[in-house]
Amino acid sequence: VGPEELRADGEPGAPALGLAGDGSVATVVLDGRGLIVAGPRGSGRSTALRRLFAVLQDAGGPPALSLSGRDPQLSPAELGAQLRDQPGTVCLVDDVDALLGGPYDDVLAEFATNPRAGSLVLAGTLGTLVSAYRGVVGVLRRSTYGLLLCPGPRGAELFGIALPDGEPPLPGRGFLVEEHRVRAVQVADQRAGEPS
Question: Which of 35, 55, 125, 176 is 20 to 30 A from 67 via CA?
Answer without folding.
Answer: 176
